[in-house]
Design brief:
The chain is built from six helices and six strands; from the N terminus they run ββαββββααααα. By secondary structure, the chain is of the alpha+beta class.
């Protein structure tokens, strides 16, 4: 149960990318905005400047599709994990915060590979691999793994980083081909760590 009374009818809402876990923005909701968000699964805020409900993306089409949510321990803040349908910030940036993408790009790359699977195009390297089938994708991962080992032992740091990048990319394609995600692997590693 969310306590809307603490903040005079409004609670802060942290928006986080469900895949990359990047914090995208902060907004506020009243009870009506929260109910609408749950019903439509599109994030709707209460705009303090417009003094009305405001569905993110209502003009741009860059909706925030709610995937899940969490209420904090005091029941007065909401964390909503979303699938953004484009840039979140009105400036055109993916986030309202100017943070480095860094580690999050691997998760973004996983999303790009997913999009290539869902919307295949002739010029896509992912589709080229996919057309060759599971055996070829698995073989490519093996080749990239060997090249990574060779680069680690006998080549420059740049070549090692390049080969490692190739390995991770092809491994992401193999995961998608087998129907798994980075989340599956992360949960497995977490469980094995216990």
């Amino acid at each position: 149960m969310i306590d809307f009374e603490k903040g005079d009818g409004l609670v802060p809402v942290i928006i986080q990318d469900v895949q990359t876990l990047e914090v995208l923005m902060l907004g506020y909701m009243n009870e009506e905005a929260w109910e609408k968000t749950q019903k439509e699964e599109k994030v709707t805020f209460y705009s303090r400047s417009k003094n009305r409900l405001w569905t993110k993306g209502e003009e741009s089409g860059n909706f925030l599709w709610m995937k899940n949510f969490h209420i904090d321990c005091d029941q007065d803040t909401i964390l909503i994990k979303v699938q953004p349908a484009g840039p979140t910030c009105h400036t055109g940036s993916r986030s309202c915060f100017t943070t480095d993408y860094g580690n999050n790009f691997i998760a973004e790359l996983e999303r790009i590979i997913q999009q290539r699977y869902e919307f295949p195009t002739q010029e896509s390297y992912v589709n080229h691999l996919r057309d060759k089938g599971l055996n070829k994708i698995a073989q490519k991962v093996g080749e990239e793994a060997v090249e990574t080992v060779i680069a680690a032992l006998a080549q420059s740091d740049k070549e090692f980083v390049d080969e490692t990048s190739d390995l991770i990319f092809h491994l992401l394609v193999l995961l998608r081909e087998k129907g798994f995600s980075l989340e599956t692997i992360a949960k497995n590693l977490e469980e094995r760590h216990k």
